[in-house]
Amino acid sequence: MKRFLKLLLISSLIVSMCCFTGCAYEFFDLNLEADYTNNLSGTVLNVYNWGEYISDGTEGSMDVNKEFERITGIKVNYSTFESNETMYSQLRTAGVSYDLIIPSDYMIDRMIKEDMLLPIDVSKISNYKNIEDRYKNQYFDPENKYSVPYNVGMVGIIYNTAMIDEAPDSWGVFWDKKYKDNTLMFSNPRDAFMTAQFYGGMSVNSTNRADWDKAADLLKDQKKYLQSYVMDEVYGKMETGEAAIAPYYAGDYLTMYEVNDDLAFVYPKEGTNIFVDSICIPSCCQNFEAAMLYINFLLEPDIALANAEYIGYASPNSKVINNPDYYYYGNEILYPSDEDMPITEYYHDLDDDIRFYYENLWIDVKLH
């Protein structure tokens, strides 16, 4: 989920010039809808988020954390994680303390069950009105009590039009011997199993071990056609034409396309995973009021727009979606029409026995 440089040469020249001229970050002229005070000035807010998942000032973008510090006087101590499981483990076993986190739907479901999140009174978040209704009252938080939507995404197939004969429309392309050694696959179990489960007509939330066995067998059979398992490595391989086909997140495809316009994207006919990453306050929070201010700030139209354009994922913020100046305004991949919307299924938090079962199956797949 990374935002790479679009124009490497130009960016390198800018960096070089800044080294000699002492370029400094220039604050944006923000049109804020909420009122912010300096009552908490001098305090620290510890934020834990995915890597490259906020506009950070690179490529001339807005530095959201610096803007928040300027407006409120609150110091943002910002850390990143690479997976929901890493974040969960840090909070559960490492004894760390964060004031705000941004997990995905199924992990929020688990953390609510385990009393790891504090309630959020959305009536005290004035910009909550900007969140589209379709992203409220989700299965993992039906009363909107513990989470505020941040980003929305779906998984699809990225393919190189210069390297394959015809556009794929099915997860079955990853079992097609024509593309042997030219296909990639997720290197994490939940997403890899998802491709096999949809292809095999199973639910991604099945509690039947036989379904997971069937999906594991499909992944084992698929393995002989794969070039490699990847996560962030997918960027280099697809952008340079080292591989022809990969499953990945729609927002990241748009980033890759800006580097290699031979790339195209499709949602498979069998269906795919949809996810919502949301802002939460963990039970270890030490600066609750600052966390509430930060949530409201992230929902500001100017801030949400900067994040949406930088990250490239779909925004749940109506002020972004309906803004004709939004770089991805009307983008059919991020915002498909009702007629073009693929079949989707959210990941749910599965019982420990099923989760441990498929994680062990995944080890077997990788070793097979």
Comma- or semicolon-separated keywords:
368 residues; alpha/beta; D-Maltodextrin-Binding Protein, domain 2; 2 domains; five-stranded mixed sheet; three-stranded parallel sheet; 12 helices; 15% strand; disordered N terminus
Q: How is this fold's topology laid out?
A:
Layout: H1 8-21, E1 44-50, H2 64-72, E2 75-81, H3 84-93, E3 100-101, H4 105-113, E4 148-160, E5 183-186, H5 189-199, H6 209-222, E6 226-230, H7 234-239, E7 245-249, H8 250-257, E8 263-266, E9 272-279, H9 288-298, H10 301-311, H11 318-321, E10 344-345, H12 352-367
Parallel strand pairs: 1-2, 1-3, 5-6, 9-10
Antiparallel strand pairs: 4-7, 4-8, 4-9
What can you see in these coordinates?
This protein is an alpha/beta fold. The chain has helices at 8-21, 64-72, 84-93, 105-113, 189-199, 209-222, 234-239, 250-257, 288-298, 301-311, 318-321, 352-367, and strands spanning 44-50, 75-81, 100-101, 148-160, 183-186, 226-230, 245-249, 263-266, 272-279, 344-345. The protein folds into two domains: 8-152 and 276-321, 3-Layer(aba) Sandwich (D-Maltodextrin-Binding Protein, domain 2), CATH 3.40.190; 153-274 and 340-367, D-Maltodextrin-Binding Protein, domain 2 (3-Layer(aba) Sandwich), CATH 3.40.190. The protein is 33% helix and 15% strand. The chain is globular. The two termini are 28 Å apart.
